[in-house]
Design brief:
Layout lengths: L2 H16 L3 H4 E2 L2 E10 L5 E7 L2 H15 L4 E16 H9 L9 E3 L7 E2 L1 H6 L14 H10 L14 E12 L4 E3 L17 H17 L10 E3 L4 E2 L5 H18 L2 H18 E4 L2 E6 L4 E3 H18 L5 H13 L10 E3 L5 E3 L5 H16 L3 H16 L8 H10 L6 H12 L2 H6 L6 H18 L11 H14 L7 H4 L5 H4 L11 E3 H19 L12
Antiparallel strand pairs: 1-2, 2-3, 2-4, 4-7, 5-6, 5-7, 7-8, 9-10, 9-16, 11-12, 12-13, 13-14, 14-15
Helix pairs in contact: 1-3, 7-8, 7-9, 7-21, 8-9, 8-10, 8-21, 10-11, 10-12, 11-12, 12-13, 12-14, 14-15, 14-17, 15-17, 17-18, 17-21
Length: 552
């Protein structure tokens, strides 16, 4: 699509919005702006502009955009700087050192004429700031490399603590090749498109994009590209078979929502690879192997059970049922008479390596057994799940506030509507709601935990168990769900964010962990899919309101 008409439309939008904000949008009498040209497979080009008049600034940005519209360019973004603050570098550095990695959300001008000004997205996408106990928060090597690559400076820059810098926010608009998106300006949401209401169709699109992203990571053999550090397109070299299994499970959840055959075919391929390369069978037992660590894990068996049972449920193909029974037998072999599990065995000796490794394994194992029971009504699976759940109650496992515990509490009460089981599920979530609501990281398992709890409370109301809910605020639960569903968008690689990284096509449509160097690992995407799939079902069936959420 030719950009000229879009640029004229955008010019009117910018002038209408920015004219009223002049006192916050000029520095030393000038307007400062940034034009970003986006490409499919390489880092975006950012061009800085400074003019006395807003009209002149926009006119020059339009000229530059038209000049840069080539077959290779797929998008553009315009930003206007606002809310300037002149700061001593030493004082600013002390604050930056204490800021969580990649959570600095303002731009920085290293000179007052803005020739060497970097937007927040440029700073974070090039790993220019690194928190530490002391020293300089700016990674000089990364900064100089980017300044030279972007033609903002052609010499090595030396900074001293008595220098001054100017920090600023931006107001932005992004054209994706089809439409213009106005971008968020609040601190935690900054730079992504405004999504006032998370309607079911928007959530379905997120799930579909993420599901297809994972499907594209499945190689011809069925093995995943395990993950990437987005800033410099660096591949994560190690592999984890547990995450292979659990990610495949989430792909099948995505297929249930979208009915996208591409996702199902890739998931089936991943399952075949899982069975061929990671399953160790011994008599009537089957374990998931972690080859790099030479061990088998309770959590691995549980994740494998979840993946295979989900596949059987959605396809009606029971091919994997004999294997699932062996996996369930292996889980039961790790359970003692009180319901406690042994977590890790050595491979291939199957001698105990770690009685306990991480609390996630326990709830995941019970959830897996319950999902098998759903399609294979062998009482052993339900009895074993109940035995462990009773152990969870005796040992106050609800204090762990684990999403797998929410899943299995919701699941087991479908078959055993014990009030103590419901109470456990409520405690696991509600005791931690204030922390979940305020958490600054996107932490996707929070949405999983809360939506599973919401599902359970809906069933309690239907079954006449409202008296158990009297001490719990359903309103606070719903507010927390809405907040987390909106906030997790800040961990999604929209194209207006992905364009600043080394290989946008590699990461667009995925979910990342900001403080882990913008890591995109298959399980990071997995947990977001699982939470949003359940959130979609609540929205679709009118069990939670479609609301806006302004994140402060």
């Amino acid at each position: 699509m030719p950009w000229r008409g879009i640029l004229d439309e955008l010019e009117n939008k910018i002038i209408d919005q920015m004219t009223e904000a002049e006192e916050h949008a000029t520095y030393n009498g000038k307007w400062h702006g940034f034009l970003t040209i986006g490409y499919k497979n390489k880092r975006a080009t950012v061009i800085n502009f400074s003019y006395l008049c807003l009209a002149n600034l926009i006119n020059e940005m339009k000229k530059s955009a038209l000049k840069n519209q080539t077959d290779e360019a797929i998008s553009f973004k315009m930003d206007i700087a606002v809310n300037y603050q002149l700061e001593n570098l030493g004082e600013w550095n002390r604050k930056a050192l204490k800021t969580k990695k990649n959570y600095y959300r303002r731009g920085i001008a290293l000179n007052e004429n803005f020739k060497m000004a970097l937007m927040e997205q440029e700073i974070n996408a090039n790993a220019i700031l690194l928190p530490a106990d002391e020293g300089l928060a700016i990674n000089i090597e990364n900064m100089n490399r980017y300044l030279m690559q972007s033609n903002k400076n052609q010499a090595q820059l030396n900074l001293t603590t008595d220098s001054n810098i100017v920090t600023f926010d931006t107001v932005g608009w992004f054209f994706d090749g089809k439409k213009i998106h106005e971008l968020e300006t609040t601190e935690w949401n900054h730079g992504r498109r405004k999504t006032t209401l998370l309607k079911p169709e928007i959530v379905a699109e997120l799930v579909g994009n993420a599901g297809r992203y994972l499907a594209n990571q499945v190689n011809a053999t069925g093995e995943f590209n395990y993950g990437w550090f987005a800033c410099f397109d660096k591949k994560i070299k190690h592999y984890n078979s547990l995450r292979h299994a659990s990610t495949t499970y989430s792909m099948l959840e995505a297929y249930e929502l979208t009915e996208d055959e591409f996702i199902l075919e890739a998931a089936a391929n991943a399952l075949a690879y899982l069975q061929k390369n990671f399953i160790y069978e011994k008599e009537d037992l089957a374990f998931l192997i972690e080859p790099e660590l030479r061990e088998v894990k309770l959590g691995g068996a549980a994740a494998t059970l979840l993946a295979f049972t989900k596949y059987m449920k959605i396809t009606g193909n029971k091919t994997y049922l004999p294997l699932c029974r062996k996996i369930a037998n292996a889980i039961l072999s790790l359970q003692d008479k009180d319901g406690k599990f042994t977590h890790v065995l050595e491979y291939p000796t199957l001698e105990v390596k770690d009685i306990f490794r991480i609390v996630y394994y326990d709830g995941e194992a019970v959830f897996g057994l319950l999902r098998l029971y759903e399609i294979d009504r062998d009482s052993r699976w339900l009895d074993a799940a109940a035995k462990s759940f009773n152990h969870f109650i005796r040992d106050n496992y609800w204090q762990n506030h684990d999403h797998w515990l929410s899943y299995c509490a919701n699941e087991i009460t479908k078959y055993i509507p014990d009030e103590a089981y419901y109470e456990f599920g409520l405690q696991n979530a509600f005791d931690n709601l204030p922390f979940i609501y305020a958490r600054e990281t996107t932490f996707p398992t929070f949405l999983e935990l809360t939506v599973a709890t919401k599902e359970m409370t809906l069933r309690m109301e239907k079954e006449g168990l409202q008296h158990l809910l009297l001490d719990y605020s359903i309103e606070e639960l719903e507010k927390t769900i809405t907040k987390r569903a909106h906030y997790q968008l800040n961990g999604y690689f929209y194209p207006e964010l992905a364009m600043y990284y080394k290989n946008p096509a590699r990461i667009e449509g995925s979910f990342f962990i900001r403080h882990q160097s913008f890591r995109v690992r298959i399980d990071d995407v997995e947990h977001n899919i699982s939470g949003y799939v359940r959130y979609y079902q609540l929205l679709k069936h009118g069990k939670i309101r479609v609301e806006s959420e302004t994140v402060q």
